[in-house]
Amino acid sequence: MNSATERNEFRLGWTVLLAGVLGVAFGASPIPFNVIGFTVEPLQAEFGWSRTQILIPITIFGVIASLLAPAFGWLADQYGVRRVALWSLVAFGLSFAAIGLTPTSQAASTLYIYYALWVFVGLIGIGSTPVTWSRAINMWFFKRKGLALGILLLGTSIAAIIVPQVAEWAIRAYGWRAMFVIVAGFPLLIALPIGFFLFREPRPEERPQAITSNGGKLTGATLGQALRDYRFWLIWFSILIIALAFGGAFINMVPILADHGIASDLAARVMGILGLGILSGRIITGLLLDKFWAGYVAFPLLCLPAISSYLLLGTDSNFAIAAFGGFLLGFAAGAESDLIAYLASRYFGMLHYGKIYGMLYMPFGLASATSPIIYASVRDTMGSYDPILTVAIFAYVIGGGLLLFLGRYPETFPETEDDEPSPAALEAA
């Protein structure tokens, strides 16, 4: 990379980064996870469904979205991220609002209609997640890649700070059905218009030289080469283990706090503090990744939620302890999301980034989707979250420790006959 490119990365790409931040914030990655915890009480009151039944939709959504992540990554690689990301924002916003159309009937079929609406969200919303947005940011930044990705993924922090407050207010003021419609305004009325005017991939001459060959084309491993690389699987299993521990704690945070006698309005504040933790984790992790090897950064940061799980054991935590635990949990979540995008680009390059990132997003999405049900099932059957919180303490340490075995970043990538789409095709997209 030449010195001019190093100096100009943020000057050239800041508008794209801004659009990406809002796209991540109000896309399908954070919003469903930030609102579903607030639907437990109203749905139990209206339909008599169990906690497990009420949280199954997030599993349905997450599993479908995770399985489709490589496909949407391929679409972004092939046709450009702008088209995929913007159309997915439209689809996600409309389908999320449609959940508010769930029938009022007490019939058993109502539960399956509710599930079907969530299926639709999963089928069409995944293109509005970091699978797409991070591809563009990785193509604008290299020298300050860690910081840029940290800023991009601040979007989930913004969602965690704002969306729970809006969701809690909307349910209290207008009911849970209206909440889905109100929250859908974030992708449709904020992220979409800003993304339309500001979001794009760089032209070849705007790319950092470090991600291109001498001919100016993107370099990187193919998906097949990545799947044969032990480092891919170390990252994959680390993501799986950490997400299994974190996802259930995050989604069940409101009912966990209720077991501690903390009311829903204070629980919303804890979720906001958790969002601040995610924000801090994003920026600090990004800065550290630009200066130090990822394994040294990842291990201590991913051990922090073990402390959080310990603090949430029992039923006698006060607001201050719960808030501190929420902050630590959020900080580690911010670190993990940064790491997925950073490690995918540094170890496997950018030529097939969308597909490879999609495969690495898969364990994150699957584990985040199934973990809430595991937590809820433990609570329903054993009367306490303590057993699963205890398991989570060890999971955080093991998951973080796996990344210590990744080794040095590759300086070159194997030659491949695959080629990227032509600049003209991407410009048209």
In short:
This protein has 429 residues and is mostly helical. It has helices spanning 3-25, 31-35, 40-47, 51-79, 81-98, 109-125, 130-140, 145-152, 154-174, 176-198, 223-227, 230-251, 253-259, 264-289, 294-302, 304-311, 319-348, 353-382, 386-402, 423-428.
Number of domains: 1
Quantity of strands, as a count:
0
CATH topology: Growth Hormone, Chain: A
Give the CA-based shape.
globular
**Termini gap:** 27 Å
Low-confidence stretches: 1-6, 422-429
Architecture (CATH level 2) name = Up-down Bundle
| Total DSSP helices | 20
Instruction: Spell the H/E element sequence.
Output: HHHHHHHHHHHHHHHHHHHH
Layout of helices and strands:
Blueprint: H1 3-25, H2 31-35, H3 40-47, H4 51-79, H5 81-98, H6 109-125, H7 130-140, H8 145-152, H9 154-174, H10 176-198, H11 223-227, H12 230-251, H13 253-259, H14 264-289, H15 294-302, H16 304-311, H17 319-348, H18 353-382, H19 386-402, H20 423-428
Helix pairs in contact: 1-7, 1-9, 1-10, 4-5, 4-6, 4-18, 5-6, 5-7, 5-10, 7-8, 8-14, 8-17, 9-10, 9-14, 12-17, 12-18, 12-19, 13-14, 14-15, 14-17, 15-17, 15-19, 16-17, 16-19, 17-18, 18-19
What features would you describe in this structure?
This protein has 429 residues and is an all-alpha fold. The protein has a single domain (3-410), classed as Growth Hormone, Chain: A, CATH 1.20.1250. It is built from 20 helices and no strands. The protein has helices spanning 3-25, 31-35, 40-47, 51-79, 81-98, 109-125, 130-140, 145-152, 154-174, 176-198, 223-227, 230-251, 253-259, 264-289, 294-302, 304-311, 319-348, 353-382, 386-402, 423-428. The radius of gyration is 21 Å and the shape is globular. The model is unreliable at 1-6 and 422-429 (pLDDT under 50).
